[in-house]
Each structure stands twice: as structure tokens, then as C-alpha cells.
Write a structure and sequence with these properties.
CATH class of the largest domain: Alpha Beta
Number of domains: 3
Number of strands: 8
Shape: globular
Oligomer: single chain
CATH topology of the largest domain: Sufe protein. Chain: A
Radius of gyration: 21 Å
Strand order of the largest sheet: 1-2-3
Number of helices: 10
CATH architecture of the largest domain: Alpha-Beta Complex
Distance between the termini: 46 Å
Structural class: alpha+beta
Strand content: 15-25%
Order of helices and strands: HEEEHHHHEEHHHHEEHE
Amino acid sequence: MWDYTEKVKDHFLNPRNVGEIENPDGAGEVGSLACGDALRLTFQLDENKRIKDVKFKTFGCASAIASSSALTEIIKGMTLEEAEKVTNQDIANYLGGLPEEKMHCSVMGKEALQAAIANFRGQKIAKEEYEVVCKCFGVTDKEIERAIRENNLRTVEQVTYYTKAGGGCAQCHPKIGALIERVRREMATEGPPPQPEKRKLTNIQKIKLIEETLGREIVPALKADGGDLELIDIDGNKVYVALRGKCSFCPSSEFTLKQYVESKLKEFVSNDIVVEEVRP
């Protein structure tokens, strides 16, 4: 039995934006029914070239449906340039995490988005020279290399979790192992990858992300120690909160606000977030 977060369960049982947009600006398909997972993503832009509407159809497990649903919520209101920067880790983080064995579902969402954006631009996905390493699931060496680099994978088992490669007959395991060794050797000589810029959020996206981060990352931990926190207001980059329960009279409340609440919001939302306490 997979250990799913409440947010994964919610997006599986109540998926957002299911369906297909008629005459979409962009459409992308990844996966195949033969391999067990398939996703079709369509989007429509507004007059400012921002994603006004996005819908998906997914054939797959709970993680595949939840990841697709989460992706559509994440990219609404973004420009295509902003949407391109969304990673599979962003999708997993939005859901409060995915079992590692199911991370390939978040990768599938990212690939569908890339295909839809390429479709809008009239581009064809580059026909790189590639080798199908995993014949059971049709996974190429390029897909495996990309997953290793983007997710810092180290083992054959991890590659299977992120790409499904090697999850069938296992005859490709030696080739996957050799790819891991080569790519990680190259990564070591290249140095640490540049840190991606945090995407610019609209006001609505920022408010939504602040609320989700408080509910997922912060409030549960405070409640576990007898405290609580209430969101009072958001004004630009300033987040006004009130401490409740034991936190309201704790001598370390200032530390809690700055070193825990504010640092978490900076990590998951934006580096310029400032948290201020509202006292009665």
C-alpha cells in the first residue's frame, strides 16, 4: 500500500481540470496504453499569452492522475516561459511529496507540458539519435540520462522509479548501470548545476501557494507541539499571521516566526517573503 499524502488523495479523488480543450493552442501526449500510463494535455492562452485554461486526460494510477491534476493547477496563469521552468520535483512538492516508486508520474506530467508547448510553437521534438534501452517500456537512453541529471539519481532502482526503465524483465539493468556511471562521471567534471530561478508568481498564485505551504509544511508541525498559526492577511511580499495556542505565549515565538515560518515560505514560495506577527 502506497503512503500517499492527503493532497495526493484529494487530487486523485477530486481531480481538477479533467477533459480536453476544443481547438487548443497547444496539445501534447506522452506515454502509451501498452506501458500502463498515458497523458494528453491541452491548453489555451489569453490575450496576454498566459495560460488561461488547461485540461488533461490521464490513463494511469492514482499518482498519475494526481500529478496531472496538480500540474494543471500549477501552470494556470503562467506564461509559457514560466511554465517551461516547472520541474517534476515542483509537481511532487506541490502534492506534499510522492512515493519514490511513483516519481515517474511527475516526470510524465513535465514531458506532456513540454510536448504541448512545442506543439504551440510549431516545433517538433528533436529527433536525437537514441537507443531504446528498456524494450519493455520503450524508454530511451536520452530519457534515462535526463532523469539522472535532473533528479541526481544514483541507482538502477531509482531510475526505474523515475522512468519505469528496468521495471520489466530486468535485462536492461547492466545498460542502465553503465549510463548512471557515465552520466555521474560527467556531472562530477561539470560541477554543480546552476540553481534554477524561482518563477515569477501572479498575486493569485502567490496567495494560493502561501496558503498551501502553511497548511502542508507549517501548521501541522506547530499543532504537534500544541501551537497553531492563523493567516491574517497578505500584502505584496508581507505575510501577516497570528500565533495561537502555546505559540502565542512562547518565549521563542520570534524565532519560530523568522527561522521556521518565514524560512519555509521563502523555500516554497519566494525569497522575498517577510512574515510579521499580528498581536491582539
